[in-house]
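Researcher: Here's the sequence for the chain we discussed earlier.
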Amino acid sequence: MIDERSRNLGHSTNLMGLSTALLGSVAFNDHPRDLHIAGVREMNAQMFEMLEQSEGLADAGEAFHAYMMAMFGIDPEQQEPVRGSRRRYRASFLRLLKGWGFDSNGPEGAVLKGWVESRFGLFPTYHKEMIARFSTAGWAGYVEEKMSSRFHNNSIHCQLDMVYEFCQWALARHAAPGQSHLTLYRGINSFDEHQVVERLDRKTVVMRLNNLASFSSDRGVADCFGDTILTVRVPAVKIAFFNTLLPVHPLKGEGEYLVIGGDYRVQADYY
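Model: Thanks. This is the structure I predict for it:
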């Protein structure tokens, strides 16, 4: 268990218009408010006007995918560097999702956690090892990987901003209209990545989730990843990606959701 007062959730500023302490709190997760990354919808108003004409989530996903391919030049030939080619490698949100699916503690995972830190202000609690202080090797390794020039071109944070805002639009219009929360599941074998802040009863704890974490909408899938199943009511505004959002991406098949972290009321079932 950690002393909540001894470690800050994150930076004093973010791009969401609310304090980081509130964004990461149990109170916010129990009673969320609308969230938007400053300026993203305003700068891409035509895209969202186009999305309003879509006939469903699949149609909207195809339109958004095409928009991102055109806007950032990330057609299939540019998603991976080509040996012997002088063409400059262009970073892509799809490449980050692919890396996350392979290893959330790899370089791509660090970039995604760094985007959450930048936009939501929330620090990661784990990257290859538990991160408790800035002076640790774990923090230094995370910072080195999140700043890698390999991924920080082609406005990668702007790409992720647009994915988040499209995800929020899609949840409100098609995937979960009228729902403030979704019940999601995660299987774990230890509490290193997600730290227990307070025990409320035998099965219920307040847990500080990593600033970005994978959950599943299918409890049976979560069972495959650990002997402790976390059940969490996640605010829709803290979902950054879900597996049916786009027609083509690397995270299909496990009902996967990428969830923004903070302190959550969690039911932990042990097997």
